[in-house]
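Our consortium's second objective concerns turning raw sequence data into structural hypotheses that experimental partners can test. To show how far this objective has progressed, the report includes one record in full. It was chosen at random from the queue rather than selected for favorable results. The single chain below, 481 residues long, was entered without modification.
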Amino acid sequence: MTLLRIDAGRMNDSRLLMIKSSIEKTLDNAERLNTELNSFLSIERESALNRASALDADSSELPLKGYPIAIKDNICTKGLRTSCGSRILENYHAHYDATAVSRLVDAGAVIVGKTNMDEFAMGSSNEGSAFGPVKNPWDITRVPGGSSGGSAAAVASGVVPAALGSETGGSVRQPASLCGIFGLKPTYGRISRYGLVAFASSLDNIAIFGRTADDVARVLGVIAGRDLLDSTSADVPVPDYSAGLSADITGAKIGVAKELFGEGLDPEVRQLVETAIENYRNLGAEIVEIELPHARYGIAVYYIIATAEASSNLARYDGVRYGFRAEEAGELRSMYFKTREEGFGPEVKRRIMLGTYVLSSGYYDAYYAKAQKVRALVKRDYLRAFEKCDFIATPTSPTPAFRIGERSDDPLAMYLSDVYTVSANLAGIPAISVPCGITDAGLPVGFQLVGNFWSEGPLLNMAARYSAEFPFTEKPSVFAD
């Protein structure tokens, strides 16, 4: 998708509808492909075309003028439905824009729709949506990954060049790998979380999908930065990410931890990721061995901390303040019970119960407090590793996209889909998934680069340099015209 830069004051009337025409084509593709992919929960034709017409008539220069973008349905967009993929918020329309959304709009972007997702961002396959699963554009019998599978599919299918997702334990990087696109999780605090519906507040991030590293860089440059509406956002300078995408990577040190290439890693994924690491060596990077001794505890730690915070955050959905309320409840306690029983899906209920358990009297110290201590050790491992290297290379997902329904009855197998991604969230550091090849079955594979705090720029440069020398040109079977 080419960004249109238009100076209406220097164009004749016959060309004044360039943005509107481009957005109309985007909307047509979104509607046509949605019948196969179910990637959008809402396609905002009227508001997008009105926005495009206004941009066509505006002669001002904006960094993302006319740029179509999709927004995950747990990020608030004023006047549009924000359901979080859940029946409990099925008819909720946000009264304000998330800071990331308002910054995109101010930069000239056009929001074309809200994307499907695992309910309340809890899942690794996008089968947990109350509104049906998303299909992978490479093979519609397979999952796109989750929980931001709708945004991933919208980008991978060529409908939009970029989309916002959210990351709590890999919900952008894992679907980026399974869909053959770029997915960046920033440093915690780099992008404001104001307007992101909370799952696990100490782990949540707004994150970005793009068809290219440049798409990711351009969106990040607009939405990053301190926000007074979010006390956890950081007052750290925001560089020109796009301008830094051509820097020489000769001498960059990439760390590899052997413990992350062991049991459970698909052989084809291993081969493609190891080839990518060797390709970096050929580009002048130095490959060094590192150790991440506590990485093997990442899944256990993550599913204690994340579920504990989810249990607290989702207590607000009680049928009283907003959202779904069960009918025919005779008294208050019954109304609470019936509302949550009917409004939440099975995975959300599972995680609320797990979180309530680990926070309960007698178990808090045994589980939650201990998990927080191990979280500190995971972070310390990364800081020590970065004394020897600039980046850490790992697989993004242990397998390519699996078939819809294949892991539905095995929550542990589903949770292990995030085994390589959760640690970056626990540590709060940035990471990006970069496409690196195709399996014999025709499914994409990505590798992950993890960086130190605030290193989004160097990470994007490493991704851009790799894709420039080893371009990933394959397209999925379901792709926009």
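The partners drew two points from this record. The mean pLDDT is 95. The first strand starts at residue 40 and ends at 43. Both points have been shared with the crystallography group to help prioritize constructs.
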